[in-house]
Amino acid sequence: MKIMRSLLAASAAMVLTASLSACVSDEAAEAGPAGGDSDTITIGIKFDQPGLGLREGSDYTGFDVEVAKYVAKELGYEGDKVVFKESVSAQRETLIESGQVKLIFATYSITDARKEKVSFGGPYFIAGQDLLVSADNSDITGPESLNGKKLCSVAGSTPAEKIKKEYAQQVDLQEYDSYSKCVQELSAGSVDAVTTDNVILAGFAAQQQYAGKLKLVGAPFSEERYGVGLKKGDTELCGKVNDAITKMIDSGEWQKAIDNTVGPSGFEVDTATNPPKPDTCS
Q1: Residue 73 domain-assigned (yes or no)
Q2: CB 224 within 8 A of CB 127
Q3: Domain limits at 193?
Q4: pTM assigned to the model
Q5: Using one digit for the tens of pLDDT, what is the confidence trace for 89-143?
Q6: What pairs with residue 166 in β-bridges?
Q7: Half-sphere exposure of 159 (CA within 13 A, CB side)
């Protein structure tokens, strides 16, 4: 009887030890590489911005995508370990706060208001509001030359209102629900110009169907610092993101990504502000 009890006790101990080992293994697997909570990392990007973040079938292209892939690789994720999730502007803070994404690369301007809810790595690019016009247009040289012209932007957007308020009170605003529609109207001659951040406009101009038809005016009149959105207060991850961005810039891969994505439009970065130096994480 004593022998039986001893055998049962030993067996139970073995089961408990195996269970504890399995739990530790599972936790280790869930911890994954640096910067992630599993063996994959979910990153938010735009799905509808050519040259920056564009989804076509199962392919993702654009400058934001290239920076995201580079940073993810430095964190220990690449290939199918990187999962992209659409992050429309109005949902970005919610996606981070709820844990649906670990990072966001989506033309996400760093602002004090947004810092109340999330933290930022970067910036990894500094854009400026500009104008997109027909390639043969010589009348529009900046926002102050838009009086009497038809200007297109997304409904309710601040770029168009900024122009009407500060530069050209007599501009004729044409508003649509997407920049792609504005660019179509510009190509068709229905509007005279489209406005938003220069790198976004360059992405549209770089599309094959607009090759040689459109151009940037090249006179930016604002500053938009694109950051990497992440969970508020996560300074450890922020530091790793900044290290990766710095490495990408120093290696020449940052410039290569610009050249391969928005470069075909003829876009050249403003070297007075780019490439930027990441902010101190806080």
Answers
A1: yes
A2: yes
A3: 129-216
A4: 0.80
A5: 889 999 999 999 999 999 999 999 999 999 999 999 999 999 999 999 999 999 9
A6: none
A7: 28
